[in-house]
Amino acid sequence: MKFLKRKNNFIFLLILSFIFISTTAISSVIIITTPLIKQTKNSKKFPSIPILINSNSFPIISAQSVLAIDLMSGIALYEKDPDTQLLPASTTKIITALVALDYFPLNQIVTVGIVKVDGQKIGLIYGTKISIENLLYALLVYSANDAAEVIAQNYPGGYDAFIQSMNTKAKELSMTNSQFQNPIGLDGPTQFSTARDLVRATEVAMRNKIFAKIVGTKNVTITDETGNIKYDIDNINQLLGNVTGVMGVKTGWTQNARENLVTYLERDDKKIIIALLGSQDRFGETKELIDWIFANYQWQEVNPN
Fold this sequence. Notes:
The chain has 305 residues and is of the alpha+beta class.
């Protein structure tokens, strides 16, 4: 029996080796922080493996860095300089949200302090009170910079302590090439991340039902504590509701960073994350990648026996 087990394991490793070699033109294997399918000692079920069936054409992507991952197997479907440190812009808010979700109850009411930020904002008014849940909707749906500031200001120890917690969170998620100096995504010498790191963060974030619900929200009305001040906000992610299976996650843009987009997709029992940084057309190129993946890959079951 031991010989048969060794033989079966050897055959399985040979199959995986063949698959990995066949896709080395564009892909490699990364280790996701926690696998979505957990193997038990006696389990015989393995995730289906994506196999590239057409290597004659590849999408031409302007983005400086790209990584597309099949979450069930942990195999890269497409990559382009995924470990290059670049300006993350508002994809930073994925980490901002995770730190907030770690500490604050959703129903906690906080006070809006002095907020002096440029760029995207909903216009929070000094002295008003608002729930963390509503701030998270503003943060992730509308990418509101003022919401990020208010969350950070109300963290124990204040703004600086929040930034420290963001960097601690990044280390916990094995984001080895990332550092943050603000919760918004504004450009700075110590504000950088990579496509691979953002994939890691998103894989964990989408396991949080609250995060997943918020980033998948097309439009919503939020209010202050009294209900008298209302903010009607629309999701600025153009793929949400327009590309089959897209469930969020986060956009980003600054003049220096160019266009960034992290996307989570579920389609035909497949789960895929795409991180794209420094693009000239984040929505168009992400859609092109999605179309290319489903046209050029087949998922095959692996039976180790």
